[in-house]
Amino acid sequence: MAPTPQSLSHPQPNSLKEERRSANYHPTIWDPTVIKSFTTLYTYESHATKLEELKQKAGKLLATTKDTSSLLKLIDSLQRLGVAYHFEKQIDEALNQLHVDQNVSKVLSVTALQFRLLREHGYPVTADVFEKFKGVDDGKFMDSFSGDIEGLLSLEEASFLGIQGEQILEEAKGFTSESLKDSLGKLDKVKAQHVQQSLEVPLYWRMERIEARNFIDSYQNDDTKSSVLLDLAKLDYNLTQSVYKQELKELAEWWRDLNFKEKLSFSRDRLMEIYFWATGLSFEPQYSKCRICFTKYACLATVVDDIYDIYGSLDELESFTKAVTGWDVKAVEELPEYMRVMFSAMSEFTNDLAQETLKHHGLDVLPYIKEQWAILCRAHITEARWFYGGHTPTFDEYIKNGWISIGSLGGLVLLCFVEANSIVDQFPHCLKDYSQLFYLSSLITRLSDDLGTSKAEMERGDIPKAVQSYMIEKGLSEDEARDHVKDMIKCSWKKINEEIVDNCFPKVIVNLSKNMARTAQCMYQHGDGVGTSTGVTKDCIVSSILKPIPM
Fold first, then answer.
1. What is the rounded end-to-end Cα distance, in angstroms, of the chain?
2. What confidence tens digit (pLDDT) does each residue in 60-79 have?
């Protein structure tokens, strides 16, 4: 039986009583004193010589590999091991030459891998390269490939680089998914795990740090592995962890000084989980400023979210929104104490980022940072008005606001200022150029969040989220509504791919946008990866940030 608006509607708040809702978030399991105690045996000072030696050997291997199939597999391994950033120029030159030569292999696995890597790096390659693997009579992918597991896996992964209207890639996805599922019971344990993982989360959607850790284990057991690449990947992974630990100590001090634990005790204390998200956006050591900026922004934005979602009365929220949108210090003075504390932290962060950007890049971004806070608060107050007014938004109404209220738009815009070297000549009109890319990334973030958290949020009385609003509007079951949301995520990825191919955006902006979506899908794959600190989230944090790989 399909749900009705009444059966899913949120409880009516009693606006006459100053009752405060609670989400019953558990305290942090990562106290600042614990973070301060993190140590490492791996430092760049003590391992610089070894690192450089391995990089030289890996670079030589890349330069001397001429066979197309071997070269593609090498580049793919470098990317999945998390060390391709050391060889960006060499990889770009190699892929560019492959694109110029246009020598397309007759081997399915090689053709699919070449297509995926070229598309991923922004080359406008056509999906017609797969036509030769289809039958002449029926136009379907030939059954003779149904036993080619390597080819099927390669084609399955390549199909996720498709854009709208590429029917051949949709056909490829259907063919490979069905063939791979049929093969699961016939494969050895290791190969079956690879197939299952690909069917659950395609490589293109995976969070890079998690993939690197998993692939290092997998690559270690590969008979064709390069010991140089393996040693480089392990050492680089451990050294990068040392950078993360140092950044976390700095952030823990900042977070402790804000003292939100006492002053805003109703809010989520999730510094560690949010920093883990930041490593998903840009894991490479040189992006320290990106990780620190995003962590600060997202920690503050999370508390703002809690103010609107669970703590503030409507009158208070209206006043807070007005104060933020006008950046009005006098209006702030009239706010309750907890809101003054919040605005003070937002203001300090905003001024610090603006001063840094002006100092290092000569750009005055203060008005743009303030505007992002205003945009976020306007989206939150819209949802608060829905809640207090007992309004059930339509699906389109919810999505139109929800992609903003999730907060990732502000994070992406602010990171443009941190990486302003990439935009300084195009500022500020470049922000408009990136708007569709940022929208799609934020939409995936919102939809992934709703898939993972909406059940718990509905139980505490929140407004209907994407799944519930679609159920109500269309009279569908929850499973049917969830399938629709998942289809929207797939469609959004196709549009992201199209944006990347059609525009010459800076690589750092493209990667941040893709990685925002990837990290969201990772964080909410098994539930609320931010609200709940234990389980999968904790395991990922330990393996990515705290526990080095034995060498």
1. 57
2. 999 999 999 999 999 999 99
Q: Which amino acid is at 227?
A: S
> What is the secondary structure of 411-460 as a DSSP string?
HHHHHHHHTGGGTTTTTTHHHHHTHHHHHHHHHHHHHHHHHHHHHHHHHT
- Please give the Cα distance from 514 to 204 (Å, whole number): 9
pLDDT at 130 over 50: yes
pLDDT for 413 equals 97
Confidence of residue 457 (pLDDT cuts 50, 70, 90): low
CA distance 271 to 462: 24
Question: Alpha helices of 37-105 — where are they, by DSSP H?
Answer: 44-64, 68-81, 88-101
Q: What are the tokens at 536?
A: 């999968």
Average per-residue pLDDT for the chain: 93
Angle at 227 between CA 226 and CA 229, to 5 degrees: 65
Distance CA 169, CA 187 (A): 25
pLDDT of 467 > 60? The answer is: yes
Q: Please report which confidence band the pLDDT of residue 483 belongs to, taking 50, 70 and 90 as the band edges.
A: very high
Which tokens sit at 330? 């006098």
Instruction: For residue 329, give the nearest of 304, 351, 299 by alpha carbon.
Output: 351
Count of residues making up the chain = 551
**pTM score > 0.85 for this model?**
yes
Asked if 78 and 91 count as a contact pair (C-beta separation under 8 A), the reply is yes
CA-wise closest residue to 240 among 278, 274, 288, 293: 288
Angle, vertex CA 62, rays to CA 58 and CA 68, nearest 5 = 145
